[in-house]
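go over this record:
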Amino acid sequence: MVNDPGEASRFRSEGFLRYTRNTGWLLGERFLRLTVNLLVGIYVARYLGPERFGSLSYAQSLVGLLGIIALLGLDNIVVLELVRAPGRQRELLGTAFGLKLIAGILMACLIAAIALFSGISPLERWMIIIISLGLIFQSTNVINMYFQSCVQARYIALAQLTQMTMSSATKLIMVWLEAELIWFALVSLLDSIVLALALVWNYRRANAAAEWIPWCFQTTTARELLRRSWPLLFSGLALTIYMKIDQVMIREMLDAKAVGQYAAAVRVSEAWLVIAVILTTSLYPAIIEAKQRDEDLYRRRLGAFYSLMLWLSIGFAAPIAFLADPIIRILFGATYQAAAPVLAVHAWSGIMVFLITASSRWYLAEGNEQAILRRAVLGAVINVALNWYLIPRMGINGAALATLISYTAMAIVYDALDRGGRGSFQLKLAAVVLPFTTLWSKSVKPRKQGP
């Protein structure tokens, strides 16, 4: 506990100044990426048309659905350990890299096998195989974890801006050359390769003044990480199921054109959700640091975090939902007009995504990873069941409704009913009553969970 007011004030000012700069880098880069990727994506969607755009979106969704396994649920665990024990950087990064590389290769092979023996068109089959190769290069994402842990977002931003520039320029050239659909799948693979190279280059640049110490793979560390990460792996898989399964199920129950209409709405609805990732990525180390030093400061930061996530998400979701029709008409044109009702419903799910993201970090900080798993499984089951029931009856609008209901069950219902999640539920209620306030969080004490 920090008892001296001067010391507490200094800690807050220095700490938050550093995290504010870090958040500024992430926000600036992500807003630029959000704008450029949205505009370029719309340009590509208009060029391809609903049917071809739907085939590309289907391939990307299928790879994303299965490829989440290659991440092994390690990201948050490794960041947490790097903050707690920076002296273990060499073994943590090396072990996480080795595990992710092996998993990426195995999952790319598995996805390719599934595509080869499925009943989809040859073009969709080859697009899936090409995009899946990018999973191998995701192993370098451990460098991203390192930069997160030491609050050096500028290096993450520079790497991702490099990838965005190359990707956007290539897509524009493909449209200008009137390229075939398969070339846009190759651009997805190029994105993974460029990002991997940019992360490696920035990591060497950030550590240029220090003596180079190679990473090492430790079997005992691998077992430790996998033992702790498996709930997050399955929760991440469940999370990806209810985020990606809708487009896969629409393709199977309807057609590629319907996928294109739905994907257009989702592209707009989910474009701003990266802000949730930005805020949690940048502010989570500050929350963990406060928990280690001062429990009272920890509760105040949690309260401010929840309040920020709730009201910021409402500010984005409401205008998109109410202006869905002109947004689709202006951005995508008349051929995509069926996407407007989908966007009007799907946009509200963003509020729930923000709350889910915030409470996931609360559960992780409290050592209750299995609650994240249980909640994600609940959402996945509800989402698949509702998609199966609603898509044949309501078409793509049913898929949007299924998404909103399943997200609400995860964000609100689970925390309210699960005894271990009552602290998170109280934080959400307080965020509604007292927005943008930190003082009230003193009265909300998170329940300590077992490991």
Notes: Confidence is low (pLDDT under 50) at residues 1-13, 436-451. The chain has 18 helices and no strands. The two ends are 23 Å apart (CA to CA).
